[in-house]
Every structure is written in structure tokens, then in C-alpha cells.
Design goal:
Helices cover 45% and strands 13% of the residues. By secondary structure, the protein is an alpha/beta fold. It folds into three domains: 2-50, no CATH class; 71-286 and 586-608; 290-410 and 447-567, Carbon-nitrogen hydrolase (Nitrilase/N-carbamoyl-D-aminoacid amidohydrolase, 4-Layer Sandwich), CATH 3.60.110. The strands form three sheets. The chain has a six-stranded mixed β-sheet. Mean pLDDT is 86; it is low at 1-67.
């Protein structure tokens, strides 16, 4: 009773909301509830101090409406948010994504998280959103050979768990952020997208900025703060929209401080949007200086080597190359500097099977073709590491016109559990993967970045007078990892040539998703990115993220293209990397630590009273 006597509020002023929950009144409220006994009201008032996570008007919580949302409504909001996120990404309905869905896709999720207090419910909201978001945006994992359950099913379960944990932390922070909730959500979301995109298990697909695939003007600031800067901007817009949706219907009961904060946030959101548009427009209208051109012959054979075999893929590549060269000679064009095939175009080790490539494919053997044309070849191939264990790396090799393997690069960032399988050294795990899942073994990962160099003879000069071009060859989804590509640029790469095999995905939208991810590397680092694929999207992406050339998907095509080798000083992103994501991470972690400490001390103060 002593604690009740010391409550620092007038007992007569304590009300119960129409929702049936007893709580302290809002200072500025114009609404009145039912009066209950003073003792009951006082005890309930104390519960606000004892449990700071309660969604009332107290110094620990956001100034939201006390009744919150029902659990079923929160789950519906989470599902709606996941659906909007899926529509925002490149998909079969919107091949290049839907930017309007991208702007609004996080609004329902923000509403659900910011109006839920119980950790089990927050976990359920996160699990539902995460599972639906992953399954609906990465649906094409279902077509990965015969491993649909493992590639899509198990990853969906894994992301449900990851998002469930993240949602509990998010709800915890939002409940204590008061008027700063939109900022906390924006920075926390950028930290989360960054966290899921790095490391061995990194999967940088489904990020909200990819919804702007059809609007490159909105992507240009990536050369300052990377893709995660744009993520935080979009999350901030979504949170602000959510706050206005909560604020407008009940302006009579709104906190004056919150109203002022919303106005300032709105001005800030408009300023960010204007900055993105103006900076983007300037970048798109800028002439990017180039030091030379590298003339490439790109071949898109439109075969799946996993199904149709090496002979079919190689024969298709050589047929396309021969036709392109014949047409080029008829038109009086310059000889290409380099022929480029896609990832895994060669399924046999080149050095060990050189005699085989001298005679195969039978219609037009590879090595005699190169000797005749006098053009080097850049192609995907395996490099044997250990013949006894038959371990190999997924590599890119530069083959000279006389059939010598000049230089190779081994893929460093694998597709987890597909190309690199952890715990493979344990017999029981190896047996499970082989007998239950059907995976025989993974690739051995490379340990060293490699930058290739060659002379651009097609530019008009010859010998040592020709410009030296240095290029890196990220393999398949390595072009999704900004830290690796940034390291290549710091190593001196002037150009990216990515070799990819995406035909197994069977859908245009899946290949466009990969394109949408990869193009950020061109913008962040202001380097031209060439993508040579077996089915799409084979293209040349300029330093502003726009396609200079693009072949139709799922068609056997080839093209000879002059690729501009851009020269610009290192961008801010190239110099400092994901500095913005690191700031977001630091802010979120410090805020989380402070909030947990604050809750602990608040409860101690209560129990000591």
C-alpha cells in the first residue's frame, strides 16, 4: 500500500480506455473513459512502470494508441507486407519490379511491429513475414535441379526463424523510441538487410531498393552510401507513412510533440527524395570518361550444361561465335579482343583434357577454332585441386589462341550448401548429404583475388601501344557482393566481366533479379559491368547502371560489342565501403544495449519502491 500512496499522479485523473485496458491518461487527450476504483487505477498505473514495454503514454513507450492492433490484424498486415515486397521485386507480373509497391511494402510491417508488445506475437509476425517474403521473392529456387525442398523449403524455414528473432528486437526498440521510431526503423532495417547479405550465408536478394530496377534515377546515390543507404531511405518513408496513418484518424488525442516530430520528419523525407532524384538526374546526364574500348564477342548459348551436357553447350557457343565473326568480317568490323563464354561452359579440366578439346566438339573443335581466329577465350571451367579426392574449383580461365591456359580465377564466395558444404569432412554429414539430399560434393573455394590484363588492340593501336585493360571476373552470384567487387577495384580492376549460369531458374524474372542485384556494383564503383550468361541477362551495364547492350533472354544469341573502359577517381563508396551500413549497425546495437539497460534499471527502481 505504501507504493500506492507514493504514486506521483492524481488518482482522480486515472482513466480506463474504451478498449477495457486501465492506463494513465494522455496529457492532451480529449477522450474520456470509464471511471474505476482508485485502487485498481493506481495498481494499473504502477504496472506501466513495472513493465516499460506496455504501449501507453509513458516515458518508455511510443506515443501510440493504447488498444493497439489485434493479433489477427497484425498477422494480416505482415502477410500484406510480404506480398507487397514480392510484387516490388522483379517477378513474372512486373518483370522489372514495381517501384510503387517498393515504397509502400514496409508500411504494413511497420504498423504490425509498432503496435505489438508481446514477444511471442512479435516472433510470429516476423516468422510469417520472413517465410512469405523469401518464398515469394526467391520462388525460382524451387527449380534448382532436384533439390526443391532443400533449396526453397529449408531456406524458407531458416528465414522464418531469422525474421522472428529480428522482429522481437525491432518491436522492443520501437516500443521505446517514442517520436524517433521512424528513424530507428529506417536505420535498423538497413542494418538488417546488410546483416543478411554478408558472410558465408549472405544472400543479398530481395532488398527493397531493387524495386527501383526500372527507375535508375533513384539508384545513383549508391556510389556514396551503397545499396543500404537507399534501403534506409525507403524504410524511413514507409515508417513515416505508417505514423501518419496512425496519427491522422485520432488527431484529437495526439501528443503535440509527436505532431511536431511528424512534420519535421515529413520535411526530411521530402528532402531525401529530392536529393535522390536530383543527384540521380545529374549522374544519368553525366558523360563518364573512358580510357579505351575493349571489343568483346559475347555468346549466350541458351543451353543448360547440367541437362544437355558439355558437348551441346560448347557446340552452341562455337556456332554462335563463328556466325558473329563471319558477319563482322562481312561488315568490315574490327576483330574482337576477346571471346567470352558463360560459367561452366567447359565441364572438363582444360589442361588435362587438351587433346580432347583439339577434337571436340566434332562439328567444330575448340582449339582449332581459336587458332584459326587468333582470338583468346575467357570461359568458365573447372580446375582440379586434388585428383585423388577429385576436388575442383569453379573457375574462370583465359585461354590463348594457341590453346594455352594463361591465367585462372577460382570462385571465392560460394552458394552455401550447394557449391560449398560445411562439415563435409565429417563422414556422417557427408553420408547424409550424399544419400539423403543427393549432393556428391561441393567446389573448393578460391583464396586469392585475381585481376586479368590484356591489350585492347581493337581500339586502333597495336603491340605495347595498345591500352592495357585490367578486368576482374566475379563468377555467378559473386557480382551480388559489394565488398568483393570493391576489393577488385582497389586491386586495380577497370572493368568487370561476370560469367553466370542462371538457366536452371527457368524464369525471366529470376534472371532479371540477378541483373538488378549486379547493376549496383556498376553504380557503386562507377565501372562498366559485362555479364556473359548462358540464358540471360547477357548485357553490358554502364557506369550509371543503364544497359548499353542487352540480349533477349532464353535465346541462342551472340553479339560483338565495344565495351567502354571507364576511368574515374574512386567513388566515396569505393574508398570507404559500406560505411553507412556500419553506422546503422553501430547505432542499432548501441540503442538496443541502452534500452535493455534502461529496462533493467527501471524494473529495479520499481521493485525497490
Amino acid at each position: 500500500m505504501k507504493a500506492i500512496e507514493n504514486v506521483e499522479r492524481r488518482l482522480d485523473d486515472i482513466k480506463m480506455s474504451y478498449g477495457g485496458r486501465i492506463e494513465a491518461p494522455c496529457k492532451y487527450t480529449a477522450c474520456h473513459g470509464h471511471t474505476v476504483s482508485r485502487l485498481a487505477k493506481a495498481v494499473n498505473g504502477l504496472s506501466h512502470l513495472a513493465y516499460p514495454g506496455h504501449r501507453g503514454y509513458n516515458r518508455f513507450g511510443m506515443n501510440h494508441f493504447s488498444e493497439g492492433f489485434s493479433f489477427s490484424r497484425s498477422l494480416a498486415l505482415a502477410a500484406a507486407s510480404a506480398l507487397l515486397c514480392a510484387l516490388a521485386q522483379p517477378n513474372e507480373l512486373f518483370l522489372y519490379g514495381n517501384w510503387a509497391s517498393g515504397i509502400f511494402c514496409l508500411v504494413p510491417l511497420y504498423l504490425a511491429l509498432s503496435n505489438t508488445t508481446a514477444f511471442p506475437r512479435l516472433a510470429a509476425i516476423g516468422a510469417l513475414f520472413g517465410a512469405m517474403h523469401h518464398a515469394l521473392t526467391s520462388y525460382w529456387l524451387f527449380f534448382y535441379r532436384n533439390f526443391a525442398f532443400w533449396t526453397l523449403g529449408t531456406t524458407t524455414i531458416a528465414y522464418a526463424v531469422i525474421y522472428a528473432v529480428a522482429a522481437m528486437y525491432a518491436g522492443f526498440l520501437l516500443q521505446r523510441s517514442r517520436h524517433a521510431a521512424p528513424i530507428v526503423f529506417a536505420l535498423g532495417w538497413a542494418f538488417f538487410e546488410y546483416s543478411k547479405s554478408i558472410g558465408f550465408l549472405g544472400y543479398p536478394w530481395g532488398l527493397v531498393p531493387y524495386s527501383f530496377t526500372a527507375l535508375p534515377v533513384m539508384l545513383q546515390t549508391a556510389d556514396i552510401w551503397g545499396v543500404y543507404g537507399i534501403s534506409s531511405a525507403m524504410a524511413f518513408w514507409a515508417a513515416l507513412i505508417g505514423e501518419w496513418l496512425l496519427h491522422l484518424p485520432r488527431r484529437c488525442s495526439a501528443d503535440a510533440g509527436k505532431a511536431r516530430a511528424l512534420k519535421w520528419y515529413t520535411a526530411g523525407a521530402l528532402a531525401i527524395a529530392i536529393f535522390l532524384i536530383v543527384y540521380g538526374d545529374v549522374s544519368l546526364n553525366r558523360t563518364w570518361p573512358h580510357q579505351t574500348y575493349l571489343r568483346l564477342l559475347l555468346c549466350q548459348q541458351n543451353t543448360d550444361p547440367w541437362i544437355e551436357g558439355e558437348q551441346a553447350a560448347l557446340a552452341s557457343n562455337l556456332k554462335l561465335a563463328r556466325k558473329a565473326l563471319e558477319k563482322n568480317r562481312e561488315e568490315g568490323g574490327r576483330t574482337p579482343d576477346l571471346i567470352v563464354f558463360s560459367e561452366t561452359s567447359l565441364r572438363r579440366p582444360f589442361v588435362e583434357y587438351r587433346s580432347w578439346f583439339e577434337k571436340n566438339p566434332p562439328t567444330e573443335p575448340l582449339i582449332p577454332f581459336l587458332e584459326k581466329e587468333g582470338i583468346p577465350l575467357l570461359t568458365g571451367l573447372p580446375i582440379i585441386i586434388d585428383w585423388e579426392k577429385y576436388t575442383a574449383s569453379n573457375s574462370v580461365g583465359l585461354i590463348s589462341p594457341d590453346g594455352r591456359l594463361l591465367k585462372t580465377y577460382a570462385k571465392m564466395h560460394p552458394v552455401p550448401f550447394a557449391e560449398a558444404i560445411p562439415f563435409w569432412e565429417f563422414a556422417w554429414f557427408r553420408s547424409f548429404m550424399q544419400n539423403v539430399i543427393g549432393l556428391e560434393s561441393g567446389w573448393v573455394m578460391g583464396t586469392e583475388r585475381v585481376v586479368f590484363d590484356m591489350r585492347a588492340h581493337s581500339s586502333g593501336s597495336s603491340g605495347n601501344d595498345a591500352s592495357l585493360v585490367r578486368f576482374a571476373t566475379p563468377i555467378c552470384f559473386e557480382d551480388a557482393f559489394a565488398d568483393l567487387c570493391r576489393a577488385f577495384v582497389l586491386d586495380g580492376a577497370d572493368l568487370f566481366i561476370n560469367l553466370t549460369n542462371d538457366s536452371w531458374s527457368r524464369t525471366e524474372s529470376a534472371q532479371i533479379q540477378h541483373y538488378a542485384v549486379a547493376r549496383f556494383r556498376a553504380i557503386e564503383l562507377r565501372r562498366t559491368l559485362v555479364r556473359s550468361t548462358n540464358s540471360g541477362v547477357t548485357c553490358v551495364i554502364g557506369a550509371d547502371g543503364r544497359s548499353i547492350m542487352e540480349l533477349p533472354q532464353f535465346s541462342a544469341s551472340s553479339v560483338i560489342v565495344d565495351v567502354p573502359v571507364i576511368w574515374t577517381p574512386l567513388t566515396m563508396y569505393a574508398r570507404y565501403g559500406d560505411w553507412w551500413a556500419h553506422l546503422c549497425a553501430g547505432f542499432t546495437i548501441l540503442l538496443l544495449a541502452w534500452s535493455m539497460i534502461d529496462v533493467i534499471f527501471a524494473r529495479r527502481r520499481y521493485y525497490n519502491e
